[in-house]
Amino acid sequence: MIMDSKKRMIDVQDVYFKYPHNNENESVVALDGVSLHIEKGEFVGIIGHNGSGKSTLSKLLNAIIFPTQGDVIVSGLNTKDHESLWTIRQTAGMVFQNPDNQLVATIVEEDVAFGPENLGVPPQEIRERVDRALAVVEMQAYAHQKPHQLSGGQKQRIAIAGILAMEPECIIFDEPTAMLDPSGRREVMETIKRLNRDKEMTVIHITHFMEEIVDADRIIVLDKGKVVMEGEPRTIFKQVKRLKEIGLDVPQMTELAYELRSAGLEIADDVLSIEEMVDVLCQ
Amino acid sequence: MLKDVTIGQYYPTGSVIHKLDPRTKILFTTAFVVMLFFLNNLWGYLATFLILATITLLSKIPMGYIIRGIKGLVLIIMLTVVLNLFMTPGTVVATLGPLTVTLEGLKVATYMALRLIFLVVGTSIMTLTTSPIDLTDGMEWCMRYIPFVRRYAHELAMMMSIALRFIPTLMEETERIMKAQKARGANFETGNIISRAKNLIPILIPLFISAFRRADELATAMEARCYRGGENRTRMKQLAFEFRDGASLVLMFLMIVGLYLTTWIQIPLLFPV
User: Fold this and answer.
1) What is the pLDDT of residues A117-147, one digit of tens each?
2) Which residues of chain A have a CB within 8 Å of the CB of B218?
3) Distance of alpha carbon A62 from alpha carbon B88, whole angstroms
4) Alpha-carbon distance B229 to B249, whole Å?
5) pLDDT (tens digit, 9 = 90+) per residue, B42-71?
6) Which of B213, B224, B232 sits opposite A89 (nearest CB)?
7) What mean pLDDT is predicted for residues B143-169?
């Protein structure tokens, strides 16, 4: 068990988190005994209705907040241990929802350099890391632009490059596509998937667009601060009724298959994409 | 309306002036501004004009761009001129009803107007030729040599660069809020000054709320990227004094001395000494 947690990217052990502030001296329980683990190189999707605790969970993984009870272990380091705080934040990078509110500098390449500068990396190496990170997100051409001249999707790719330049082992995406238009969303998703596929980056993707995680390795469903489902996309999404009960959608094609089944058509219940649907219907 | 703000704007042309180290430019601008207040005759202002004109030509920034910067200050300059013109006691040269223009008034008004114009032109050449990043880096370096400010040099520079980063974002937001409030029937164009000022409240309140929310999110994002103040922080771009900086510093020193020497000139130009 100890050996296991050393190999693991992230281990969340029976975590409770309470927000202290409330009018009637009551604390709000955001996480209610959550245990989960993320292996190296995995692409894990986390979904849940508003207030299910998914954002709280993401902030715990990056040591921005700390569990009220339980432990969060990132790459063998406990987030409660203040000594390892900066190592944890460097190991588990985080990309937030609003692209505007996470870019610090007035020039794109300066922004990408912000993380490594904070880590005290020597100037020459920062230069190399910045160029490499911009190449990975395919934004080299924009290195000298100002962030406000870019589209939402481009800004979000710069935010990703800013995290990559810190050379993390894992990136947590907290609804990175929520504020983007469809083309921006596609750009960002392609970048995230490429990172996981080609760079073997561990990716934790929190979203409420189900289509984005149909090819994830694993999906974790949160509801009212608890993990209610966990498994491969196919096994999760075919439980259409249960997902709808906790206020979640399923991918369009899964829903279509579900409707067709309820209408009496003999059809597989785990269809995820349009291509699969075409195959299933043409049989 | 909001697009006319030229203060703090960067106009890249790749000229010699642009390539100078920001510290060189900051030093010169500071010395220049101080010197402006020592000038006591038109010879000095003439020399200042020549210096600024040369620098502007070297910087390859279009004159119109620099003049636009003065436009914003026309009201202040006019006010100073009018006040000085009519309020200074001395030899009367003209009377306009109850108002009298004195020779001394004419002199002070001219000097003040020139001083203000050169002040704005001089400082805007610095901001136009220096990228905000370089400017804050240069200021951070300079502040390290000022007692009391030294301790906060990094924080102040970081604040400045974040402010510069968010000016366009907040302007966009202001325009969006204005449109949204107009769509709800708000009126920003008519009415007297007081009612117009009152009409700004529905713009300012959402703007402030959103600015605070942005600040909060930005702080979290900065911490997530391991920001912990200036200690042990490195920079990708290092400031480097080069030969041209040394050469310009010598030239600049000579210019400042030259300007100072003009205060000794006893030959009257337009106004008596």
Assistant:
1) 999 999 999 999 999 999 999 999 999 888 8
2) 101-102, 104
3) 66
4) 32
5) 889 999 999 999 999 999 998 888 888 788
6) B224
7) 88
pLDDT at B68 (0 to 100): 80
- The domain limits of chain A are 40-66+81-237, 251-283
Question: B100 forms bridges with which residues in the sheet?
Answer: B95
**Chain B interface includes A166 (CB < 8 A):** yes
What is the CB neighbour count within 10 angstroms for residue B204? 11
φ, ψ of residue B189 to 5 degrees: the values are -95, -30
First to last CA, chain B: 43
Calculate how close chain A gets to B21, using CA atoms only, in Å.
Answer: 18
ipTM greater than 0.95, yes or no? no
Q: Where are the domains of chain B?
A: 1-130+241-273
Model confidence pTM above 0.90: no
Q: Please list every residue in chain B whose beta carbon sits closer than 8 Å to the beta carbon of residue A58.
A: none
Could you please state the CATH topology (level 3) that the domain comprising A40-66+81-237 is classified under. Answer: Rossmann fold (3.40.50)
Question: Does the pLDDT value for residue B72 go beyond 80?
Answer: no
Q: Give residue-wise pLDDT tens across range A150-179.
A: 999 999 999 999 999 999 999 999 999 999
Q: Which residue has the tokens 């700004």?
A: B200
Share of chain A above pLDDT 90, in %: 66
Alpha carbon separation from B34 to A198, A245, B38, B73, B260 (Å, rounded): 59, 72, 7, 20, 11
Query: Are the Cβ atoms of A127 and B236 closer than 8 angstroms?
Result: yes
**Quick count: other Cβ atoms within 10 Å of Cβ B234?**
16
Instruction: Decide if A170 contacts A139 (C-beta within 8 A).
Output: no
Interface contact A96-B161, CB threshold 8 A: no
pLDDT digits (tens, 9 = 90+) for B260-269: 898 888 888 7
- DSSP code for A84: G
Looking only at the bridges linking them, the beta strands covering A10-19 and A69-74 are: antiparallel
Flag whether residue A128 sits within 8 Å of chain B, measured between CB atoms.
Answer: no
pLDDT of residue A24: 62
Collect all residues of chain B within an 8 Å Cβ-Cβ radius of residue A163.
Answer: 225
Q: How far, in Å, CA of A15 to CA of A34, rounded?
A: 5
Residue of chain B nearest A104, judged by CA positions: B162
Contact assignment for B226 to A90 by CB distance below 8 Å: yes
Q: Where are the beta strands (DSSP E) in chain A?
A: 10-19, 28-38, 43-48, 69-74, 77-78, 92-95, 170-174, 202-206, 218-223, 226-231
Q: Which residues of A touch B232 (CB under 8 A)?
A: 120
